[in-house]
Amino acid sequence: MTQDVWPLVHAERVALIEDLAGLDDERWREESLCAGWTVHDVTAHLVDTALTTRTGFLLGLARARFDFDRHNAAGVARQRGNDPQETLSRLRMVATRTSTPPAPLDSRLVEEIIHGEDIRRPLGLKHHYPTAAVTRALLHQTRTTTAFGGAKELLRQVRLTATDTELEIGNGPAVTGPALSLLLAVSRRTTALDDLTGPGIPTLATDEQARHLPPPRRPRGR
């Protein structure tokens, strides 16, 4: 089943809206885990991706000369309100949408969880993600190639073992920790490496450094 991802996506949107509603404007200006993007910028990106359709994505990418970063920056500029409350209102309006760019539907869940943490971690906000949702997102990331923001190739070098669910995937030295931290780490959020242990950590850290890539902003999330 793929359509069953939408209730999980919608629940995460609603949870993030509730967390954002309590912020003052100064906190919206804080840097997120996405290099160069504030909390406000990431929120605008989530509005933009929630509105994106397959056709609209392809047209927008063509206008951006097939540069994903330029495409995403244009989306942020388009959906960023004059103030945080306007952007938050826009996020509320799209919370139950089921439109998607041309990507596997599970990428929508990855998008919500990863960007949710891009916002929450710098702000010191805690959120309980359902184990099934995090596991599903992690499995999607590890089945997706590096070229599309995933970690399929990395799983030939390390073995990921979640301490909070029965999940063990990959080959090589172990990297152990909470499933959410594993998801963040394979999605190029190096701050999550501090949550992990095991002999595979140097391989994972080296892989992150070797790619020299900013946190993925492609429409499939991550």
Task: Please specify the SSE layout and strand pairing.
Layout lengths: L4 H16 L4 H4 L10 H13 L2 H10 L4 H12 L4 H10 L12 H18 L7 H12 L16 E4 L5 E3 L3 E4 L1 H8 L14 H11 L11
Parallel strand pairs: 1-3
Antiparallel strand pairs: 1-2
Name the descriptors:
single chain; 222 residues; mainly alpha; Four Helix Bundle (Hemerythrin (Met), subunit A); 3-stranded mixed sheet; 51% helix; 5% strand; globular; disordered C terminus
What's the total count of β strands?
3
Proportion in helices: 40-55%
Structural class: mainly alpha
Q: Tell me the strand percentage band.
A: under 5%
Spans of 5+ residues with little confidence (pLDDT < 50)?
209-222
- What oligomeric state do the depicted chains represent? single chain
CATH topology name of the largest domain: Four Helix Bundle (Hemerythrin (Met), subunit A)
Helix/strand order: HHHHHHHHEEEHH
Radius of gyration: 17 Å
> What is the CATH C level class of the largest domain, in words?
Mainly Alpha
Rounded mean pLDDT is 89
CATH architectural designation of the largest domain: Up-down Bundle
Counted up, domains total: 2
Largest sheet: 3 strands, mixed
Can you walk through the features of this model?
Helix 3 (39-51) crosses helix 5 (68-79). This protein has two domains: 5-123, dinb family like domain (Four Helix Bundle (Hemerythrin (Met), subunit A), Up-down Bundle), CATH 1.20.120.450; 131-211, no CATH class. It has a three-stranded mixed beta sheet. With 222 residues, the protein is mainly alpha-helical. The chain has ten helices and three strands, in the order ααααααααβββαα.
